[in-house]
Amino acid sequence: MAKSKKRKTRADKAGSKKRWSGPLIxxxxxxxxxxxxxxxxLALQMGARGAWYAVAGHxxxxxxxxxxxxxxxxxxxxxxxxxxLRGKLADVxxxxxxxxxxxxxxxxxxxxxxxxxxxxxxxxxxxxxQIRIEVFFRRPAGxxxxxxxxxxxxxxxxxxxxxxxxxxxxxxxxxxPVIVHENxxxxxxxxxxEEEALAVGARLSRFLEERGxxxxxxxKEIDVTHVGRRGLTGADVSLxxxxxxxxxxxxxxxxxxxxxxxxxxxxxxxxxxxKLRELGGFLREHSGLKGIRHLDMRFNRITYxxxxx
Length: 309
Description:
Blueprint: H1 10-56, E1 62-63, E2 68-70, H2 78-89, E3 96-97, H3 103-112, E4 117-126, E5 130-137, E6 142-146, E7 149-153, E8 159-160, E9 178-180, H4 195-210, H5 213-217, E10 219-223, E11 237-241, E12 246-250, H6 272-286, E13 294-296, E14 303-305
């Protein structure tokens, strides 16, 4: 006997459709919403980025060398230094924008390479288009005499051109010795061949000034001709007073701080402080330097010459 097949009714087919089409439609709808939302977010981002570029690219945020500023001490000729630095930064700031994160580093590098600047402490970007630099300049520490010419130097013996430098305000009205060197070369660009010897003179001048000895002894010259010259029997450094007396100072403790002179400091020579104390005692005992032609401070006992009548 043949088995009869069970036929699906319309109701069965409709129920089957409902069971499968419901989850599928929800998934498709969710996917569609995600696509729409993603597109909106992307459009907003692109719009915001475009708006940011439009704002940041406005000419009011462009930086030029004229927008660079810095403070200068009293011994710097500000207008000349500003013109020089702005000239050096012209290429660095070509098409520059205040929002450029690399801008401060590029400005610092460009400024640091100029010899008068020892250190660039900070570079700040200030809206809308200003660059503020904090710099530390070389400071005059002495005056070198070469014939009838006079040149400012710093404590390292570096030449400080008159175009950019002048005497500090605290030098005015105070007697200061000149630093001399019999074989002084012509100055190069910012440097002397004899700069280590000149540095000794500048530092010794500062030492004597801080202790009031420049005025008390009436020092007019600090002669550094023999600094660093091995095999000489005379003093490396000599001080010449207004009365014509010559004080053979010898080497100084500053030799230890100057590259090529570190090994040339005499180990048996008194310290600068001790020399000054002994010189003070000598002057009290002899009522000054009147009548004395030469003193030698290089040993533990001062020797001196008095010219014969």
